[in-house]
Amino acid sequence: MSEGEGTTFMQWRERAQNEVREDRPKMRAVLVTAAVVVVVGIVVGALFLALG
Predict the structure, then answer these.
(1) In angstroms, rounded to a whole number, what is the distance separating the alpha carbons of residues 3 and 32?
(2) Which parts of the sequence are annotated with region: Disordered (predicted)?
(3) Cα 38–Cα 9–Cα 39 angle in degrees, nearest 5
(4) pTM for this one?
(5) What one-character-per-residue DSSP string does 13-49 give?
């Protein structure tokens, strides 16, 4: 991976906070929804592996 490729969680969080500061509620809703989907996916995947 070259420099500038990929995004760390901290960079993503900082960008999300900047979007909120710029008062873009639609973008904030998209980011929150994406975060919830990721967390739910991880939990479901972990349960599936644990029970499988």
Answers:
(1) 27
(2) 1-21
(3) 15
(4) 0.49
(5) HHHHHHHHHTT-HHHHHHHHHHHHHHHHHHHHHHHHH
